[in-house]
Structure formats: structure tokens, C-alpha cells
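User: Can you help me understand a structure? I only have the sequence.
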Amino acid sequence: MLNRLQIFGLSAILAVASLSGAWAQGVAQAFTYQGSLRQGGNPVTNPSQPMTFRIYNALTGGTLLWNSGAITVNVQNGLFTVQLNAPATVWTGADRFLEIQVGSTTLSPRVRINPTPYANTATLLNMFQSGTTNPDRMVITHSPGFTDWGLQYRDSDDSFHFLGGGVSMFRVGLFDGRVEIPGTLRIPTGAAAGRVLTSNASGDASWQDLPAGASAWTVSGTNIYNSNTGNVGVGTNNPTVKLEVKGGLLVDSSAGNLRIGYPSSSNQWYFATLNGGADLMLWENAANRLRVFFQAGGNIGIGTQTLMSARLNVATDSTIDNATLRLHESANDFARLEFTNTNTARKWHIAGLIGSAVANDRLNFWNSSAGDIMSIRGDGTVAVKVLEITGADLAEKFPTTDEVEPGMVVEIDPDNPGHLRKAQGAYNRRVVGVVAGANGLSKGIVLGNLEGSESHTPIAMSGRVWVYADAAERAIEPGDFLTTADAPGYAMAADDLAKAQGAIIGKAMTRLEKGKTGMVLVLVNLQ
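Assistant: Let's start by predicting it. Here is the structure, written out as C-alpha cells:
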């Protein structure tokens, strides 16, 4: 009967070598076990002895942690050697006991496993296991009484942590490469104030003095400022410009936009770019105060993104007291709008002056070579050096009682004071002129465009106009005096000059053959 088991400890060196190779491959940890098997006091010799090895967490009873299954073991003169491949999860640091079964006989008592497998595990820090959800574990502990102090590996984010009382004081991430120090980093002696940590081309770091003229940054309470008078500030410790900031600057590039502003809870103002920089907006408390739209061609729209035909397009709903564009001069001087180009050094100004009285107000059109070209005073008076008019006559608007058209001769309507009508009858002394604008000859000056008379008829009282003429009795020749004809609204040549006095329209400038009616160009000169 098998009743004696002898264990020899010369397997420790072999176990370490085997375990290191196995762990590097991410498989179960193996160790070599050697023993002596006797029966009746005599060594057992059997080259094919069936044996089973089990590991428990207690000397008796307990939980089975590993079972080798039946193994054929060569036993010579009572001695045997076997390699056991228990998984790494068996070795947690708690006591472990080996149970051996030979054939159908289980030997007793179980054998306490001495530190050799644990030493193997400790050699490899007991943390390199396959899988992604292995438990966190301490690599180095302060002492059994201080298990929350030391170096810990955390499988959750592949990182090492130096713990103090269970709190991470220093973290090194294997996956993300980040080094984190939640507490204070203390600069060692020699890295005095004003020195900087820098590196050379090889990546070696050292503390160095600032180069001449370089800037050092200082933190003072809530202020950050450049101590080398480079002006920066941010909350300031007195830099006056080249940034400064003070009350609050927000730069927010979320959703593809950039916002710069003052994010107060009660009054929020933002200067922002929208649509990836295509729009520019001044925004207050969810209200769009000013929005500028940009087109790819360079056109800019203020208040519009559709009326974009010019370089600058402004769309407003203005009133008399609400201007679309305002130019303000801080001194008692002209507020100017300038026009220039690259063709010449000359330039134009439209300049407005607000005087001490309305009559002193002026809007000037000024040229750098000729000076003031035209001036409009506040009382409505216009002064101009030379007035050149492209039209051909002087006309005034009148209401008419008849339906008239350009080129017709008109007279005073005796039945409607202030009104005119088609001239009726030859040599009519009530004649006042010709309806302007016939044959496309434009009007020069139009008088009487008073409120309510915008739609009245312009009557030429001087200058050149085309007139309807009747040459039934005789031809009209250039230079002939023209008077009213029997046909309503028509003119004819005046044969009886004595009778025509007070009824002459003017002088004909073109010919009309006898027996015809048509248009004649007349130089209006009532007499």
C-alpha cells in the first residue's frame, strides 16, 4: 500500500526557469515538483505510474483550485519528477496545499506548497496576464499592515499608480502615455525662480537660466502676466495693452464657430463668426445686433445676405430720424466721405457741416483740385459754380382738365382757375406753352414739383420742344412764328403778326410741308 511521500526541495531553480518562459508567453505558470514514493518501506519502481495532482486552499476540505487530471509518471527507485502547470490565478498569496493521488489512492495529508511558485510569480510582478478585465493588483506594498500604500497596476486603463492611503498620488499611463500628478510638483534645489526646464536635441532635460531677452511668465493670484514688460496680462497685474483682457474673454470654437465675448449671466455679448467663418455677428442676450455676411467674391452684406451685388450692401428699415449710415465728426468741422482710386492723387469729398443755425448747415461737394464745387445750405439754397443741364427746356407742372400728351399746345382753362387745357382756336391769346417730352427730347428743368403735384403735367415755357403742327393752309419753314391752330392742341404758322401778338408760341426750327400735319421742333418763346 502506498503510504509514504517524501518531498525534496532541489527543484526550486528549475521551477524559476520554467515559470519565466511560460509567463512570457502568456500561459499557465509551471513549476517542477519532485518526490519519493515508497510502498512497505521499499522504493516503488514503475515506469508508467498513473498520478493526479490537485491544489486546494486548505489542508483539509476547502476549495479545489486546480486539477491536473491523470498524468502518467515514470517512477524509478521510488523517485519521480513532474512539471505542474497551475494557472496564474491560483497564486494570490494565500496558503496553497497539494493533494496527490496515485492510481486510485489519495495520499494524506496534503502537502503545503512552499514559496517556490510564489517566488516565480513575484519575479514577474504577478500582473502580466492575458485578457482585458483582469483585477487590479499591488506590485509593491509598504507592508502587510499598509496594503493601500505602494505601487499598483490598474487593468481598467493600463496604468501604474503610486498610492498613498488608497489615493493615486502619481499616474503613468501605458496606453495613453499620460503622466498625471494630482498634487503639487516640487521643483528640486537648483531650479531656482526664473529658471526654465528645457531639453537638448537628444531629449535630455535640465534647468537653465533664461536667455537674454526671453520672457518669463508669472502667476499672481487670479492674474497671469508677462514679467518682462511684454504687456500680456489676462486679469492683469498692470500690462497696458498688447492683450490685457481683465473682465473676461471667451473663445469658443464649438460647432465650427468662433466666439469672443463677455459671458456674463445677466448681459451676454459675443463677437462671433458663424457658418465656419462665412458670417460675422455681434450678439447680445440671444439678439442679433449686427450680422455681416460674406460672399466668396468678396462682397459684404450688413443686414442682408441676398442683396449682394455690390462690394458693400446695407439693408435697413430706416426713417427720417433713423439713418442707414451716419458719419459723425467729433470736432466743429466737416464729417467727410472720401472717394479715390489709383489713377490719380486727386480725390472727392462729400462733406457735411452742422452749423450753429440751420442756415449755416452745409453739405459740400469738394474736389482736391477745384475746391468746393457745390454747396447745399440748410435753408435749401444751392450754390454751384456752373450748372450744366442735359435737358432742352424749362418746364413747370400744372394740373390739366383735358387729357393731354407730349407735344400738344395748351392754354389757360377759363373755367378752372389754375388749370390748363388743350389750346382751342387760331391765334388764342390764352396759350401758355407746349407739353414737354415729345419725340424723346428730355426736359431740362422742371418747376412746381410741389407736394400733391407730382403727377401733374410738365409744360415747356422756354427752350426746345417738339410740337404738333398743322400745315393745311401753308407750309411751315424754319424761322416762322408759330401760333395756335384751329385743331385743338396744334400749332400753325402765324401769317397775321398783328393778330398773333400775345398768341405766339415761338419760332419753328424745322420744316413741315403744306397740306401735312406732324411734329415741328420749336424754340418756345411766348410773346
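Now, to help you interpret it: The two ends are 163 Å apart (CA to CA). Residues 12-24 form the longest helix (13 residues). Let me know which part you'd like to focus on.
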